[in-house]
């Protein structure tokens, strides 16, 4: 299956680099390019790419708002957005993930990592490295602390998920990979994948990123 990619980046040289990298892959096709957020939204709605590679800081409409319009809450058939940013701990990245991005990478990531990222998101998985997840959660711990208004949501999560599923969700929120979760809980990686799929389905979440944010927001896991 060919992965159709839309490249959204305001710097022409960087945009050309992405296009060259993706076009060289036998399983990828760059179907469009956008130099600002408004173009990104227009082309995404017109072309319906499998993955949108989105820069955060763009003119006219920034990547966060563009992502929100394409993949945010209430959007029918949300797009799969891979945010690419200069900073690994950046408030804009956190906001982009809340807006519906399926993951993010740094701009200085090697081409192989960028290619793998697009394939990962096209396959329906999220892409947030465990170490980066821990850093983001630590950086924004205060805003993710549960409040009295989130207590009912926590109770609902506990009632919805089985005990083992809750354990897996806690480990996801801690930033562990599937392999690390499997080792810690003494189960196979395939079993972990099954649990993750069940968690996302039961809680009506699109991907692992949303699961991490929800776990902290309702207080299932509390940032230190």
TrEMBL record:
Domain Response regulatory: 4-122
PANTHER family: TRANSCRIPTIONAL REGULATORY PROTEIN NARL-RELATED (PTHR43214:SF24), TWO-COMPONENT RESPONSE REGULATOR (PTHR43214)
Gene3D superfamilies: 3.40.50.2300
Residue stretches making up the HTH luxR-type domain: 154-219
Protein's recorded name: Two component transcriptional regulator, LuxR family
Entry's Gene Ontology molecular function annotations: DNA binding
CDD domains the record matches: LuxR_C_like (cd06170), REC_NarL-like (cd17535)
A Pfam family annotated for this UniProt entry: GerE
Modified positions (4-aspartylphosphate) in chain numbering: 55
Lineage per the UniProt record: Bacteria, Bacillati, Actinomycetota, Actinomycetes, Pseudonocardiales
Phosphoprotein among keywords: yes
Any Gene Ontology biological process: regulation of DNA-templated transcription
Keywords: DNA-binding, Phosphoprotein, Transcription, Transcription regulation
């Amino acid at each position: 299956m060919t992965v159709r990619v839309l490249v959204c980046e305001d710097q022409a040289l960087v945009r050309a680099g992405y296009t060259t990298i993706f076009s060289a892959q036998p399983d990828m096709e760059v179907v469009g390019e956008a130099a600002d957020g408004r173009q990104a939204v227009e082309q995404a709605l017109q072309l319906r790419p499998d993955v949108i590679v989105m820069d955060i800081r763009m003119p006219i409409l920034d990547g966060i708002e563009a992502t929100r319009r394409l993949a945010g809450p209430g959007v029918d058939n949300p797009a799969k957005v891979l945010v690419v940013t200069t900073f690994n701990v950046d408030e804009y990245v956190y906001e982009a993930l809340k807006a519906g991005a399926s993951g993010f990478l740094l701009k200085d990531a090697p081409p192989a990592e960028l290619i793998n990222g697009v394939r990962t998101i096209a396959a329906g998985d999220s892409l947030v490295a465990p170490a980066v997840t821990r850093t983001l959660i630590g950086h924004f711990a205060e805003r993710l602390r549960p409040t009295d208004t989130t207590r009912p949501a926590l109770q609902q999560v506990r009632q919805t998920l089985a005990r083992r599923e809750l354990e897996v969700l806690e480990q996801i929120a801690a930033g562990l990979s599937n392999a690390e979760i499997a080792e810690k809980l003494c189960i196979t990686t395939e079993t972990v994948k099954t649990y993750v799929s069940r968690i996302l389905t039961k809680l009506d979440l699109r991907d692992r990123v949303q699961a991490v944010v929800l776990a902290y927001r309702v207080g299932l896991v509390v940032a230190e």
